[in-house]
């Protein structure tokens, strides 16, 4: 009698384990088939929930990026013009000093040294100014890049609602993705979406 109870209990435990396995593997299979069906194409077979954006093309065609780039170029041109004016003035003053020195215009050695010290200070001020401008432009460029990146990331979350893709890759100059089928390239769709949402700031 005891042996028969052991046998019956053993069969019941095995049956429960089998049902448990079938239940959970069945749910996982259904979930997988659901995901696959969403990304299935008759012409290409299974399409994965992945996509990529060509960054160079996005930056060249996204209106906000174009405007930021033009704004940055204008700042660089303006600052470069200011640096060039200082440089030209300094070079004129140096040439004038050399001409005066050759013609013995300076009546005393002290006056000569005073003018020389003034030119050295002017040179140092010019170099300090140029370095400061370069730092400011680099900071401004980094700020604009962050602003552009944050804008694109925020827009992609809306673009991907309801969720179409699990991952959207960024391809920079074809360095990040060695090969991908064209159907995974959503650059044009993203650029169109971004430009439709973009409203230039009024100045």
Key attributes of the depicted protein:
mainly alpha; two-stranded parallel sheet; rod-shaped
Short summary:
With 203 residues, the chain is mostly helical. It has helices spanning 2-38, 55-61, 63-102, 109-159, 187-197; strands at 40-41, 45-46, 50-54, 167-171. The strands form two sheets. It has a two-stranded antiparallel ribbon. A two-stranded parallel ribbon has the order 3-4.
Mean pLDDT metric: 81
Q: What is the tally of beta strands?
A: 4
Number of domains: 2
Question: Percentage of helical residues?
Answer: over 70%
Ends distance:
94 Å
Q: Write down the overall geometry.
A: rod-shaped
Helix-strand topology string: HEEEHHHEH
What is Rg? 35 Å
Strand arrangement in the largest pleated sheet: 1-2
Per DSSP, the total helix count is: 5
Low-confidence sequence ranges? 1-8, 15-42
In terms of structural class, how would the helical and strand content be classed?
mainly alpha
Beta-strand residue fraction: 5-15%
Layout: helices, strands, pairs:
Blueprint lengths: L1 H37 L1 E2 L3 E2 L3 E5 H7 L1 H40 L6 H51 L7 E5 L15 H11 L6
Parallel strand pairs: 3-4
Antiparallel strand pairs: 1-2
Helix pairs in contact: 2-5, 3-4
Walk me through the structure:
The protein is mainly alpha-helical and 203 residues long. It has two domains: 37 residues; 146 residues. It has five helices and four strands, in the order αβββαααβα. Strands 1-2 form a two-stranded antiparallel sheet. The protein has a two-stranded parallel ribbon with strand order 3-4. Strand 1 and strand 2 form a beta hairpin. The chain is rod-shaped and about 90 Å long. The termini are far apart. The N terminus is likely disordered.
């Amino acid at each position: 009698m005891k042996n028969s109870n052991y046998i019956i209990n053993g069969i019941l435990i095995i049956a429960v384990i089998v049902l448990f396995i079938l239940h959970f593997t069945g749910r996982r299979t259904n979930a997988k088939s659901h995901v696959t069906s969403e990304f299935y194409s008759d012409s290409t077979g299974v399409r994965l929930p992945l996509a990529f954006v060509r960054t160079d093309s996005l930056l060249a065609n996204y209106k906000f990026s174009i405007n930021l780039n033009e704004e940055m170029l204008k700042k660089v041109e303006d600052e470069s013009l200011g640096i060039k004016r200082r440089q030209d003035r300094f070079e004129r003053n140096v040439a004038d000093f050399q001409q005066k020195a050759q013609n013995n215009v300076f009546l005393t050695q002290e006056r000569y040294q005073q003018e020389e010290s003034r030119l050295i200070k002017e040179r140092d001020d010019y170099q300090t100014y140029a370095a400061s401008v370069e730092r400011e432009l680099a900071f401004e460029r980094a700020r604009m890049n962050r602003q552009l990146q944050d804008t694109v990331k925020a827009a992609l979350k809306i673009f991907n609602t309801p969720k179409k893709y699990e991952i959207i890759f960024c391809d920079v100059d074809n360095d990040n993705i060695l090969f991908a089928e064209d159907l995974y390239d959503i650059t044009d769709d993203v650029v169109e979406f971004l430009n439709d949402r973009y409203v230039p700031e009024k100045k």
